[in-house]
């Protein structure tokens, strides 16, 4: 075994230990549950971005050093640079987009929020109070958006102005409430219909994702089976026919 193998393995292990995003997130949640982490001390998005970038470079740099130790010499230096840059780019591309995560969270919680708002309106609450009540119970980022809209309405903003800058998943809810406020129509049936439509759409997307996963699962089998079939079935047959023809 080459002398550089064990240092390379140790470098990769250290980088994986530094990565550990799940353990940090679990510790943060535990501190929040015990009351030791207040909202003011929670990490900002910029801090999380910097920490994620450091972890990416640590893992990519360790992989590059490991490649350099395994190859050795000038070629090892080139391999280290290429591996580091490529690894950092791949890790960055593999990370979830924060905007996509927010959109997914909003779409997941929105059907329940529509049902809750409809229940509050059916009980006699005004729209602003219903939004504030559901916003206080719903998890962020949906709860924060509903509380912001309720606060704007209390300050005297018109319905269209209050719903003007909401994320795209909340646009349908805003249209229902704005239309009901301007026309005087009952919003409860429209909200319940919207919740049912959102659930049906989410179910269809999940089924489509499952079908795509089935295709991708069979892709490696096809990539392995087709070359083997060509090599073991087609090539000997062609060679046999060619041998008979050109004999």
Can you lay out the helices and strands and say which pair or pack?
Layout (H helix, E strand, L loop, with lengths): L4 H15 L1 H13 L11 H27 L1 H22 L3 H25 L4 H11 L4 H13 L4 H4 L8 H13 L3 H59 L2
Organism: Blastococcus saxobsidens
Keywords: Cell membrane, Membrane, Transmembrane, Transmembrane helix
Protein name: Type II secretion system (T2SS) protein F
What does this protein structure show overall?
The protein is an all-alpha fold. Among the domains are: 58-95; 101-203. Helix content is 82%, strand content 0%. The chain is built from 10 helices and no strands. Mean pLDDT is 75; it is low at 20-48.
Short structural description:
With 247 residues, the chain is mostly helical. It has helices at residues 5-19, 21-33, 45-71, 73-94, 98-122, 127-137, 142-154, 159-162, 171-183, 187-245.
Order of helices and strands: HHHHHHHHHH
Q: Write down the overall geometry.
A: elongated
Main sheet specs: none
Summarize the amount of helix as a percent range: over 70%
> What's the mean pLDDT score?
75
- Structure class: mainly alpha
GO cellular component, one term: plasma membrane
Subcellular location: Cell membrane
Pfam families: T2SSF
Membrane topology: Multi-pass membrane protein
Properties at a glance:
single chain, 247 residues, mainly alpha, elongated, transmembrane, cell membrane, transmembrane helix, Type II secretion system (T2SS) protein F
